[in-house]
Amino acid sequence: MEEKKSPTNEPSVKEFTLKEDNELRFEVGSKGDVTLELIEGKAEVFGSELVLNKKYTFGPGSRVAVFTWSNAVVELVGDTESAYLAEQTPMVIYLNTHAALEQLREHAETAVSQKEDAQGPIIMIVGPTDVGKTTLCRILCNYAVRQGRTPIYVDLDVGQGSMSVPGTVGALYIEKTADVVEGFDKHYPLIYHFGHLSPSANIALYDLLVDQLADAVKKKMKECPEANFGGLIINTCGWIKGDGYQCITHAATSFEVSVVVVLDHERLFNELQRDLPTFVKVLHQPKSGGVENRSREMRIAARNAFVHKYFYGTRAFPLYPYTFDVPFDNLTISKVGTDPLPPECLPYGVKPDDHRTKVFIFVH
């Protein structure tokens, strides 16, 4: 690393030389921005290629990893919380995963050309919290697009809500690589509102939404050959024990997954190998050394940032929300989930509806 001297009160300038398979990891502080620029060579951020001599500005709290397959020189302008070069990364493993998925896509194309019924890979990324599941999904989506594919990205993590707001599950048809700073284009996502930050709040409703989302995605794959060959890349919650484990296996069944990647958790890997059908390939892979555990406060801040971004956009793509009045008579307020009806209140032989997914109208 070479640090260039700057005039007083000017932001610091640091230059890093990355060798083959090196990764620059940096975190932006809480008070300022950091600008990244590729000076020489080729590099990427989570699978999105950097443009030579283009400046990328990251806001407070951003955590970024710049990786190169060859050699590169990059420059950081601004004060970072941390910035260092890492020689040991799992990127080669992730690239091999992409290559294996691409082989499955090619096999599906060949089978369909011979009038056989086939589809691209359906891969699900699982693991505890803070192991890099969302990042790996982003990398695999970007690599697929760079290969000329258009996969569907499915996010089942209601705790973060990277496609919309926290408390939702959704799917996004990926047609271009993610913006280095802003992420994927979210103009036309399919979103289902769950309303809680963990599946544990109403597991029956969560499983129902997963089933409905899976049906919608399968319909898209049947109607669109490009989506069918591109396959699915599914992100999941970090709740992996007890009922959380059942949510994972339920999602695997609903989406009919063909590959499961377990990040950094051997017990979960062995349990899924035991419980999933034999045709499902279960892989165990390491997490990146750059992944760090987030505190409760950091998670709350991240959720608040997603909500703010949903309504107000970003600095590059701002939105301007406004308020308007609605007559109260036109308003309907409902709740999903009610108290169970006592069995003695039911006619003999009648089974009650599932109170956990029943819609109760407060105001109409």
TrEMBL record:
Residues 17-108 form the Clp1 N-terminal domain. Keywords: ATP-binding, mRNA processing, Nucleotide-binding, Nucleus. Pfam families: CLP1_N, CLP1_P. It is found in: Nucleus. Residues 127-313 form the Clp1 P-loop domain. GO terms for molecular function: ATP binding; polynucleotide 5'-hydroxyl-kinase activity. This is Protein CLP1 homolog. It comes from Syphacia muris.
